[in-house]
């Protein structure tokens, strides 16, 4: 999506934060969580120790993509035993539900999904920043400025920011 912004094919993106030459408008933090089958040996815990991933069959969401999952695991130096890959997050979720392995994604991704998947926070916890990337808010059209204001208010009214660490 950042490439589309740079090529001027889109006016803005609601996306997780990356290095970008334009403006970044923070909306909220979103927690990265581990998806486990309900009968997984660690499913009854309160958190999932990130180091335990090395022992798991891992389902890689969006392989080869510039994903938040890949960034966090690379930054933490966690190697994973990739058994399966999926080109969309819903398929990844259903593969976890079927007992094929574990995966990681952001909490908002599964806010309305129902299934036999246990969702645990990582230990240590990790968060991503969600926001609006835009080349220049000052140079944006009146409609785009209004859209940005609307999104900011909509997020603020529905999901208060609870994390301040932003890692």
General shape: elongated
Helix percent band: 10-25%
Mean pLDDT: 90
Biggest pleated-sheet summary = 6 strands, mixed
Spans of at least 5 consecutive residues with low confidence: 163-167
- What is Rg? 17 Å
Number-wise, the strands total 8
User: How many helical stretches?
Assistant: 4
Q: Overview of this structure, please?
A:
By secondary structure, the protein is α/β, with parallel strands linked by helices. The protein contains four helices and eight strands. Strands 1, 2, 3, 6, 7 and 8 form a six-stranded mixed β-sheet that branches. The protein has a two-stranded parallel sheet with strand order 4-5. Strand 4 (57-61), helix 2 and strand 5 (81-86) form a beta-alpha-beta unit. The chain is elongated and about 55 Å long. Residues 163-167 have low confidence and may be disordered.
How would you summarize the topology of this molecule?
Blueprint lengths: L1 H5 L6 E4 L6 E15 L10 E2 L7 E5 L6 H9 L4 E6 L2 H9 L5 E4 L10 E7 L3 E8 L7 H17 L9
Parallel strand pairs: 3-7, 4-5
Antiparallel strand pairs: 1-8, 2-6, 2-7, 2-8
């Amino acid at each position: 999506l950042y490439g589309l912004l740079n090529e001027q094919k889109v006016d803005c993106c609601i996306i997780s934060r990356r290095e970008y030459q334009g403006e970044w408008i923070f909306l909220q933090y979103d927690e990265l969580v581990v998806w486990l089958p309900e009968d997984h040996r660690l499913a009854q815990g309160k958190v999932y120790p990130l180091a335990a991933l090395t022992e798991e069959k891992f389902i890689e969401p969006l392989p080869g993509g510039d994903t938040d999952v890949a960034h966090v695991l690379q930054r933490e130096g966690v190697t994973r035993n990739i058994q399966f890959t999926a080109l969309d997050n819903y398929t990844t979720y259903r593969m976890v539900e079927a007992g094929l392995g574990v995966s990681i994604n952001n909490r908002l991704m599964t806010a309305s999904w129902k299934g036999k998947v246990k969702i645990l926070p990582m230990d240590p916890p990790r968060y991503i920043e969600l926001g609006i990337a835009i080349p220049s808010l000052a140079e944006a059209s009146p409609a785009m400025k209004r859209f940005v204001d609307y999104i900011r208010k909509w997020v603020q009214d529905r999901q208060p920011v609870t994390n301040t660490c932003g890692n």
